[in-house]
Amino acid sequence: MTTTLALRASILHFSANPQYHPDALHWHTDGLLLVNEGKIVAAGDYTQLQAQIPAGVEVQHLPDRIIMPGFIDSHVHYPQTDMIASPAPGLLPWLEQYTFPTERQFEDGEHASEVARFFLDQLSACGTTTAMVYSTVHQESVDAFFTESAARNMRMVTGKVLMDRHCPEFLRDTAESGAQDTETLIQRWHGNGRQLYAITPRFAPTSTTQQLGLAGELAQQYHDTFIQTHVAENKEECAWARSLFPNARSYLDIYDQFGLMRERAMYAHCIWLDDTDRARLAETGSAISLCPTSNLFLGSGLFDFDAADAAKVQLSVATDVGGGTSFSMLQTMNELYKVARMGGRYLPASQMFYLATLGGAKAMQLDHLIGNFSVGKEADFIVLNPKATPLLARRSAHLNSLEEQLFVLAMLGDDRVVERTYIAGELRSPL
Ligand code: GUN
Ligand code: ZN
């Protein structure tokens, strides 16, 4: 469908990482965003761009609102939507008590579709327009998810979980069946509209060497697919992984040995790494998914920002629901900031908004398509109301800088701040 949109409001986006490029934050107090056929036509100052507004197109004026690119959540489990906020003493008991029984239900395609719809509605309401998503071990769970995300024309990444040991029988595939299903799903969905496939070994402890080997072969054969897994999240999990793969130099090295480190590989958590691991992530173009709400909730640990920066690893931010406790990337920034503080680091709000938009796109190697308002990019964007709640309105009356404005949004904001979400130029939320 052809759409021509002109929106007048403040505009925020990034052209690079503001940590290293101070001019990379672009702010237009009185801005104009022009969209045609789902793509960005122009973004900049209203006064400079108003001559480009096509005849017959009415400008939607949104005073005191901020337009920015949609958020990118680089690691989240849609099947865990119904078990968010489940109490357990740490990762491994939480997986046993809640996660595995919940994921069992996704053998039923109808159930999977219903949860996928709710999940995608939540993401849209929170302003998240792209996510790298875990499905379950069942093919049906991937078909259901992609059917729903394709119907909404959302740029989404997911994959069938590979898991052939150390889990209940009802969630187990085999090395061969897992690889076969993965290949079928890649052929069915990867590059189908805006849908992209991720080869998804759950984590090393639940895969045999044979399964990881076949996953590595698929990753090489289908080089433009994604890879996603968990690594070095929790101390008990690390010890378990090391005991199962005694020949590996480190937990991360298990994946490296099977050819699972490359561009478009997303490693969630990465708390208990060493410098050699971080260097390998950077060398191979693999990226880290920071999951602050999940890591605090499950008591997994605090991410080391300084070490990651020293190694020049690509970072992205993620909710990791259901280990994470919110679908909101603003709430996730709130906890990211505090995790950084606990490590002696100060994370400016501009850095957090970068990580949640263009940084995520770069980590996923999708920055040629999404992440900012460069001309020709896909028009996934959100409209924020910085005074959406009484407290936000009150606090916003005392702002000294744009950085403070963004910081207040990150600390006090959530889905209530997200007034509209557009997917490829079409209004998705509210409908
Ligand atoms: N490690 C293996 N599976 C999972 C999962 O579902 N959530 C989290 N947070 N960690 C994991
Ligand atoms: Zn996870």
Automatic annotation (TrEMBL):
Q: What does this protein do?
A: Catalyzes the hydrolytic deamination of guanine, producing xanthine and ammonia.
Q: Which GO terms describe its molecular function?
A: guanine deaminase activity; zinc ion binding
Q: Which GO terms describe its cellular component?
A: cytosol
User: Lineage of the native species?
Assistant: Bacteria, Pseudomonadati, Pseudomonadota, Betaproteobacteria, Burkholderiales
Instruction: Please give the family membership noted in the entry.
Output: Belongs to the metallo-dependent hydrolases superfamily. ATZ/TRZ family.
- The gene it comes from is guaD
> Which pathway does the protein contribute to?
Purine metabolism; guanine degradation; xanthine from guanine: step 1/1
Q: List, alphabetically, the Gene3D superfamilies matched.
A: Metal-dependent hydrolases, Urease, subunit C, domain 1
Q: What is its EC number?
A: 3.5.4.3
Q: What class of enzyme is it?
A: hydrolase
Q: How is the cofactor bound?
A: Binds 1 zinc ion per subunit.
* Residue ranges of domain Amidohydrolase-related in the record: 66-427
Cofactor(s) needed? Zn(2+)
Q: What Pfam families does UniProt report for this protein, alphabetically?
A: Amidohydro_1
The record ties this protein, via InterPro entries, to: Amidohydro-rel, Guanine_deaminase, Metal-dep_hydrolase_composite, Metal_Hydrolase, Metallo-dep_hydrolases
User: What is the protein's name according to its record?
Assistant: Guanine deaminase
GO process terms (BP): guanine catabolic process
Q: Which domain of life is it from?
A: Bacteria
- Swiss-Prot/TrEMBL catalytic activity: guanine + H2O + H(+) = xanthine + NH4(+)
Listed A to Z, the keywords are: Hydrolase, Metal-binding, Zinc
